[in-house]
């Protein structure tokens, strides 16, 4: 079975203390995956220039367990040179379950699902920035025209 | 001077029986010709109220200023927004003046 | 006078690391419509919701502006909150300060732009009207001002508008209406509105933009172009901060009355961004929009204004990985050609079916309909879905 690298963002303000992250880490380590629990991955992402790959030069695919893909799926995928799959353990786990044992179990299931998915996921391709080109051209054209004569 | 209709722009309000210019004309002068384009049926009766010019969704109608006010190429062009009208006024020397008039309070 | 409550979301410092929240809240609190400004961290979290609920429960506050992420990301969730606060959803507006401001501009210009974006949001909700009595979720025609020109009947791509026999006024069939807004854009008198897209609101949004640094360009972006602008923020690209993007359902919903308002307010440019030729999901939206814009450009020239002040662009849309057809399995039945909503499937001269990659938006309709299973979406292959099911069943 292919091994994956699992990055869990365990930001306290997001997840609270609902889930036993060290326990979950051990569960996946037993299966041979590499697991890192990050205290606040948002801090890491903010300045992409200073971003250091947490798994070094490992070529294994990455499962990011943290917030919903709606929040910043592409942003996270763009950081890595390997296929990435997001496991939503915040909105669909930590925020919906009252009891920690159910949350723990569901969290493991969600990450398992992402591990199964990531094997078929392709590498993220960086989209070309057409908007910026067009916009720069347009703005410089408008600048040439000067302000709108209706402006009082 | 009667309204001048740009036949390429006018779509006769999609060839319905009563286009917008016909509905608003206070003198009931506007109508559709055989091609389904707007036309003014009696140029002499038009008093240049510019209702049709303002309402035309295609911007196809232009009001020529009467010669007492200004010869060609003098023009007065309205552009209607939700609560204001912008006027572009061109005098016979080609000097352009623009002003915005509020038509509705909100 | 409406009382607007403004919620500024820090988004785990994704937003407030770039935008100076103190300046922002100071400036926005001066607006006469704003009653209270609160700052929360992660407005989408249960704790954030409590904070917003507290603000909404204040007696004076009757409208809310949430400045957070894109309406295409978590923004849509705030609209759902409105129902929980017993507030009509029109009275809740989401301002995109993350994808289209904090992530794409540097600190100084982002703060300036954020102030204007927030003012636009406040202006919009201040103008919004509770249309609770339109119990049907479809386009609405104000019959008092309608003069039965029937343009909406002609232009509706879904044939959802027909004339009522009794009095000849157009009426909307809510089962067919897809809220694309093409009728809104076409109405010469501007009497048609969608529940969440009214001409008056959009016109009110233009006023704050006029006060921005010149050149101030307003962008009317259709849902797909808006998504592309968001994607630029997500992948860390930058673009000019002079643009203030308004989301419209389709470029066909851009009424020339809005354009006239923008010019009257003194905006330097209006950029309408939509799809390429066949790509419009609403079928005719972009064709109608280009036609109307060409017409309006001619009038602009007659008024001695540069016609490029109003421009239509179509973006690349190249941010979605396109579907692929395995030629050896393709039987040439042509089903995919019929179901593709974006016209992305082409038949090459030698009879091969091919995907035109920049038109494809990866919706997967073709993959679903393909009997031999020759079409595959790169990230949603059959194997992947089956493996996912196995994993769920094993758990």
Helix content of chain A: 40-55%
| Uncertain stretches of chain A | none
Number of helices of chain A: 7
The radius of gyration over CA of chain A amounts to 20 Å
CATH fold annotation of chain A: Rossmann fold
Give the largest interface.
Answer: A-C, 52 and 60 residues
Termini separation of chain A (Å)?
70 Å
Q: Indicate the mean pLDDT of chain B.
A: 84
Across the major sheet of chain B, the strand order is 5-6-7
Helicity of chain B, in percent? Answer: 10-25%
Structural class of chain A: alpha/beta
Helical segment tally of chain B?
A: 3
Number of domains of chain B: 2
In the CATH scheme, the class of the largest domain in chain B would be Alpha Beta
Spatial extent as radius of gyration of chain B: 14 Å
Strands, helices and their partners?
The complex is a heterotrimer of chains A (152), B (106) and C (395).
Chain A: E1 5-9, H1 12-15, H2 21-30, E2 34-38, H3 41-46, E3 62-66, H4 69-79, E4 84-88, H5 90-94, H6 100-118, H7 130-145
Parallel strand pairs in A: 1-2, 1-3, 3-4
Chain B: E1 3-5, H1 12-15, H2 20-24, E2 30-32, E3 38-40, H3 51-55, E4 61-63, E5 75-80, E6 84-90, E7 96-102
Chain C: E1 4-9, H1 21-29, E2 34-40, H2 46-57, E3 63-68, H3 71-84, E4 92-96, H4 98-102, H5 107-127, E5 140-141, H6 151-155, E6 161-163, E7 170-172, H7 182-186, E8 192-193, H8 199-210, E9 217-221, H9 223-234, E10 243-247, H10 256-265, E11 269-274, H11 285-302, E12 310-314, E13 324-325, H12 335-339, E14 345-347, E15 353-355, H13 365-369, E16 375-376, H14 382-394
């Amino acid at each position: 079975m292919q091994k994956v690298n699992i990055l869990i963002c365990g930001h306290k303000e997001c997840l609270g203390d609902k889930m036993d992250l060290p326990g979950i880490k051990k569960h996946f380590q037993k299966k041979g995956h590499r697991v890192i629990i990050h205290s606040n991955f948002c801090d890491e992402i903010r300045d992409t220039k200073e971003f250091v790959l947490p798994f070094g030069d490992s070529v294994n695919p990455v499962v990011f367990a943290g917030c919903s893909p709606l929040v910043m799926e592409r942003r996270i995928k763009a950081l890595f040179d390997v296929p990435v799959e997001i496991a939503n353990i915040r909105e669909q786990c930590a925020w919906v379950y009252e009891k920690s044992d159910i949350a723990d179990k569901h969290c493991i299931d969600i990450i398992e699902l992402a591990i199964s998915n990531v094997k078929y996921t392709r590498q993220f391709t960086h989209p070309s920035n057409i908007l910026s080109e067009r916009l720069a051209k347009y703005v410089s054209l408008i600048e040439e025209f000067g302000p709108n004569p209706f402006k009082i | 001077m009667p309204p001048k209709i740009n036949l390429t722009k006018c779509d006769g309000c999609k060839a319905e029986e009563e286009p917008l210019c016909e509905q608003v004309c206070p003198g009931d002068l506007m109508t559709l010709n055989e091609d389904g384009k707007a036309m003014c049926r009696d140029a002499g009766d038009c008093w240049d109220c510019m209702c049709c010019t303002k309402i035309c969704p295609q911007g196809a109608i232009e009001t020529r200023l009467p010669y007492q006010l200004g010869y060609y190429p003098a023009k007065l062009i309205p552009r209607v927004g939700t609560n204001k009208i912008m006027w572009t006024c061109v005098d016979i020397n080609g000097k352009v003046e623009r002003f915005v008039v509020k038509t509705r309070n909100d | 006078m409406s009382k607007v409550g403004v919620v500024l979301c820090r988004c785990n410092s994704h937003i407030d690391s770039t935008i100076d929240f103190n300046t922002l809240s100071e400036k926005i609190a001066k607006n006469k419509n704003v009653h209270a400004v609160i700052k929360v961290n992660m407005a989408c979290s249960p704790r954030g919701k409590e904070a917003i609920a507290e603000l909404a429960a204040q007696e004076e506050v009757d409208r809310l502006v949430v400045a957070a992420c894109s309406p295409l990301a978590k923004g849509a969730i705030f609209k759902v909150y409105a129902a929980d606060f017993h507030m009509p959803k029109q009275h809740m507006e989401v301002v995109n300060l993350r994808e289209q401001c904090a992530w794409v501009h540097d600190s100084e210009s982002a703060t300036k732009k954020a102030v204007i974006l927030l003012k636009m949001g406040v202006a919009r909700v201040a103008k919004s009207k509770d249309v609770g009595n339109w119990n049907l979720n479809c386009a609405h025609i104000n019959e008092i001002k309608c003069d039965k020109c029937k343009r909406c009947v002609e232009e509706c791509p879904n044939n959802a508008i027909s004339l009522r026999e009794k009095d000849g006024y157009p009426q909307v069939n809510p089962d067919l209406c897809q809220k694309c807004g093409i009728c809104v854009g076409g109405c010469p008198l501007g009497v048609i509105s969608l529940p969440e897209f009214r001409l008056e609101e959009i016109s009110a949004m233009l006023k704050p933009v006029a006060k921005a640094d010149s050149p101030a360009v307003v962008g009317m972006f259709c849902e797909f172009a808006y998504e592309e602008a968001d994607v630029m923020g997500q992948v860390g690209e930058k673009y000019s901060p002079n643009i203030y993007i308004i989301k419209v359902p389709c470029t066909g919903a851009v009424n020339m009355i809005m354009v006239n308002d923008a010019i009257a307010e003194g905006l330097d440019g209006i950029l309408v961004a939509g799809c390429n030729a066949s790509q419009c999901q609403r079928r005719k939206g972009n064709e109608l929009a280009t036609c109307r814009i060409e017409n309006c450009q001619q009038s602009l020239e007659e008024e001695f204004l540069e016609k490029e002040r109003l421009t239509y662009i179509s973006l690349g849309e190249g941010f979605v990985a396109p579907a692929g057809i395995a030629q050896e399995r393709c039987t040439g039945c042509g089903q995919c050609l019929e179901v593709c909503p974006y016209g992305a499937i082409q038949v090459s001269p030698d009879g091969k079916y091919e995907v035109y990659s920049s038109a494809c938006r990866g919706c997967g309709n073709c993959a679903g309909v393909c009997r031999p299973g020759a079409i595959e979406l790169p990230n949603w292959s059959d194997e992947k879905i089956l493996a996912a099911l196995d994993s769920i069943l094993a758990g």
